[in-house]
Amino acid sequence: MKLSFYGADREVTGSCHCIDINGKRILIDCGLFQGHGEENNKFFAFDPEKIDYVIITHAHIDHSGRLPMLVKQGFKGKIYATRATCHLLSIMLRDSAHIQEMDVQWKNKKSKRAGKEPDVPLYTIEDAEKCLKHLIPCKYDEDLSIWDGVMIKFTDAGHLLGSSSVSMSLTEKGISKLIVFSGDIGNTDQPIIRDPSYLTDADYVVMESTYGDRDHETEKNYTVGLANIINQTLSRGGNVVIPSFAVGRTQELLYYFREIKEQRLVYANPDFPVYVDSPLASEATKIYDSDLLDNADEQSIEIIKSGFDPIKFSNLHLCETEEESISLNEDITPKVIVSSSGMCEAGRIRHHLKHNLWRKECSVVFVGFQADGTLGRKIVEGAQSVHLFGEDISIAAEIHNFRGLSAHADRTGLIKWISSFNPKPEKVFIVHGENTSCDVFSNTLHEMGFDTFIPKFETSYDLLSDKLLSEGIDMPNVKHADHASTSFSRLHAAGMRLLDVIEHNSGGSNKDLAKFTDQIIELCRKWDR
Length: 529
Fold this sequence. Notes:
Strand order of the largest sheet: 6-5-4-3-2-1-22-23
Structural class: alpha/beta
Strand content: 15-25%
Mean pLDDT: 88
Distance between the termini: 37 Å
CATH architecture of the largest domain: 4-Layer Sandwich
CATH topology of the largest domain: Metallo-beta-lactamase, Chain A
Helix content: 25-40%
Number of helices: 15
Number of strands: 23
CATH superfamily of the largest domain: Ribonuclease Z/Hydroxyacylglutathione hydrolase-like
């Protein structure tokens, strides 16, 4: 019964963990790396063909974005997720594939002119379509047996429509262990969705720590705060540009905009135009409409039952075509533009930043976490200019960062969640946080009497004997590392995969094993410098 870590280890993106039990391998999440570490998206540190099942905690791309690549490279098993998560994945993975294809197409135009070899996308829309056939929709709070000795249960994590913590009851060699993967734990008192549920039993917990070193800044009233920015910006003739995650955060913003309009808080234009410029966000909003009643909080349910839609209002425009997107920057009417991606790494938001960042009458409002190395992080940290589409764009617009408007629990929320376990788990593995967050949160829990451990990439742990099997390696931080160190990380991962392949060939014929051995020896002779 082995637990291995393959992503979101001392970093926030690329969530991926693995359980080996009774001859089966089970992934918990399979996310894309974003910002620093994107190079690591190009390889798996394990053989996808040897993965039997995948469990997805929620649909955000840093937890699900490499699923099509997994299928493309040979995964043939089932992918378990809540029903709402499956609905969201159906649009998010297609959208991610489209972005992969478009980015490579743009890069290859430059590569061709430079005489470089063309690149290929991580996966295509066709790969995403094949991946969706593996999805198995599940309900909250129901025990589901997926293999002998493996029982799973999804519990509402309050982070996103369909988000969950996953409890896994594991039995091997007559010994049973209960391990809980927190997923991303939601903030409390968010609009639309319920607060996170709290679990009480676990032998081991794998827990996120995104905001483990700080509490959110308190805002007395987000509706009023957003209204003030919109009013001031529109009054001076500017646009309000909001980089937003297409799924979850955009729908919360629509909820706030509806309240602002109902209360007529924007005096410059009480019925100000709002444009959601993201085909993905438009599709996600439709899914929210259809799945909301089963996932909404009490306030939203009351709004729905009264005959109103909590995320729709007058002068709301959902832009789907590229032509509609381009026209927004040709129209001089002051407006609010909500566009993805939330960290400004891809998508239409980069075009809107190009056209609005340099205008002092405009405002850019950040409403979510910005991972290290992303364009969004550079802007909120005070960059004077940024490079977009081959141009240096000076930053003159007002920059606002609503740190408290987060779908993640803060330090206090995380402590409340882990404190619900009674008795305390044998060990808490701290993941999904940058170095400082992991260290501070681990120390906080240690002072509270918890046994904590911060894994590295490829750390492995024996849950039966409660022993560390492999310490793992530090993933290269591209910000501080050269290309050689990144390449070495890929080489190391390939070596770990080779060991995995060797293990799975146990019991093979003497002839095949001898041939395999000779090939490895020859490879070693060639490269043992």
